[in-house]
Structure formats: structure tokens, C-alpha cells
Design goal:
heterodimer; A: mainly alpha; 6 helices; B: mainly alpha; two-stranded antiparallel sheet; 8 helices; 2 strands
Amino acid sequence: MRKVFLPLLLVTAAMFVYAPIIIARAPFESTMFLLQKIFYFHVPAWMAGSAGITISALGGLWFVFKGDRRADWYAVSGAEVALMFGAMGLATGPMWARKAWGVWWQWDAKLTIALLLFLVFVSYLLLRKYGGPGSDKLSAAVALFGLAMSPFVYYAVDIWRTIHPANTVVPSLGPGMRGAFWFCAVTFLMFCALLVAVRVRLERLRSTLDDLYLAEDE
Amino acid sequence: MFLKTALLVLKKDVAIEVKSYEIISTTLFFAVSCVLIFSFAFVKEGEAVNAELVPAGVLWIAVAFAGLLAIGRIFERERYGETMRALLLAPAPRSAIYVGKLLGVVLLLLLTELLLVPMIAFVFHAPLFAWPLPFAGLLVTGTIGFAAIGTMFASMLIRSRAREVMLPILLYPFTIPVLIGGVWGTASLLGEEPSVPVATMWMAILSAYDVVAITLSLWVFEPLMIE
């Protein structure tokens, strides 16, 4: 990761600079016009959030079953990043809903489960911070349950009758919008990878520091 | 062997409880006071302010609050006597210990509901006994889901420093689906137009939740309970 970090950072930064241009150039959606543009943030933010959740749960499982300390760094980093992207998704959603539905929030299946998933990762970080010894393993179980919950967020629109736009929106995008959407999605996923990498580095340094303190004591 | 171990753990918990009736009596009292507090807020001129949602909501909130208290106490007892380690040292599958503990929690919660349901029917004039079978199904599936998550987190929090505050923080985000299913399922059996198909649909969702929760718990209980 160390070798590719700087190039990846530069590419992602360049993509973030270019993203507003490509979003502005994408054609207007026929019913929502300018309002639809928030879609280029909202959906990629949740995609990056799901990536964070997956990293967190898989890291946690690897840590519990294989006992590899390094996997735990990924677990906690993934959870923090997922929470941040989740906050972005939860912030952009109501902005759109206020204009599209006329209300900020609806207790609809998709929104409710997404909020619960967000709360699960808030409790994950609370557990990490205040749980004391042993909470690293327990938090792996929390992340695993969170991962089990996340498909229900995605498929909620198919299982229940909801007012949230369906998953078929993404494949049915017009040609001009499709390119812009996937550009934004890739940008967000790369941003997610970068954040996890930085956060893992912090955990690694912290663990090295702990080892050094222990060595000095002996 | 598996089932025998689980039943032995359950038998042990019941035997300890029967000596003092500490957990069952405190849980029952707590659940009853919960309902009383809600009845001050939601009963107006002898009738519940909403005939469908108030009884259903109060029932499941009381189960959630009393259940949290009961689960906390059950595992506090194990910690206090340092008996969890002894349990884990036993030459038995760890998952059987989980199932035994889960059965104990479910039994306790169902006993609590046995008192809660008539009381809520009485206080809120709710026709809870009009559809006994669908209603019992909702209660059992919801209670199992709540207890499955609670048992898993409480047993893992035994060694944690801040377990009293951590248990509700972890338990409630995961069990809100159970409460939603329970409340909406129960509410569909009350009111002007009771609907058994809607209640059955919620029961199916709750059963699916139970299966997922128990499967995941059985899977992670063993590696996580190793000291």
C-alpha cells in the first residue's frame, strides 16, 4: 500500500477536482432536474460505507479466527470510515427527500434499516472506546451482525413497499448520467481505500508505540 | 449430547433461580411498573389514546426494558460467582452453553409476558386474547430474537469493564427490528379491523430474524468466548 499510496492519492484528488465538472455536464433527469444531482453523492457515499462495513467485518473475523493483530487494525479503521460515509449518506438523503417527498424523513423500511445500521456502527465505536479489555473481539461480532444487516438495507426496496427509489435506478441511467455516476462511485471507493490506509497506518504506529513502552518497562 | 448439555445449563439456571426467585421477582416488578408509568401517559378518560399502537407499543417496550434488566442480572450472577469460567471449562460444546443460557432467558421473558399481557389487556382495554394463536406466535418469535442477541452480547460483555452501559448500547440497535415487528404485528391484531395475515407476515419476518441471529451467534460464540 505504501508504494501505491501517493499515486492513488493524486489520482483521487484529481478525480475529486474533476467530479463537479462531470456532474455539471451530466444531463438533467426528466422529472427532478437539478435535484437529482445529489444522487452522485448519496449513492456513492453508501457504496463506500458498505465497503467500510465489509472491511470491518472481514477484518474482525480474521482477527477472531486467526488471531492476527493486524486484521484488527483493518476492523476498527473500516468501521470508522463506514460511519463517516454513513453520516454523509444520512445527511444527503433528507436534503433530497425534503424536496422530492416534501418531508425530511419517512419511517420507510429502507431508511429505518439504514439508520439502524448507522447506529450499530456508532455502538461499535462506543464499545471500542469505553469497553475496556476484550472489546476488540466483541466488536468483531458487532461488525459481523452489521454486515448481516447491510443486504437488508440494499434489498429493502424489493422486499417491502417503500417510497425510496428502487435499485433498478442505477442500471437504467441514461448514457450521459451513467458515466458520471460510475466516475463518482469509483472516486468515493478510492477515497474510502485511502482513508482506511491512513487509519490503519495510525493503528500500526500506535501498536508499535505500545510495544516500545512495554520493551522499556522490561 | 448437545441438547443434553443445553438442558443441563438451563436446569442449573432454574435451580439457582428457584432458591431465591430474585431475578424473576425483580423483573416482574420492573415490567409492571413500566406498564403503570405508560398508563399514566397514554390513557385518557379510561381509554388508550390509540387503541392499536398504545397496547402493542407498551407491551414490547416493557419486554425490551425488563428483558435488558433480566439478561444483565442473569450474567451478573455468573460473573459474581466466577462460574462462567467453570462453565466454559466444562468438556462440552460452547454453542450448547449458549443455547442453554438462551433457553433460560427465553423462559424468563415468557414468564414475564404471562403477567404483562393480561395486565396490558386490563389497563388499556385491549382485546389481546381475541386471536390467541397468532398473538402467541408473535410473542414467542419476538422474544427468541431479543433473547438470542441479548444472550450473546451479555455473555461476551462479562469480562468487559463498562458492561452495564455497554449492554443496552449494543443490544438496542440490533433488537429494534424485533420491536418493530412485534409492535406492528401486535397492532395489526387490535383496533377496528384486525388482520391475521398481516400478523402472520410479521411473524414470518421475526422468525427469519431469529434464524439469522441464532445462526450467527452460534458461529461466533465459540471463538469469542476463548479467554
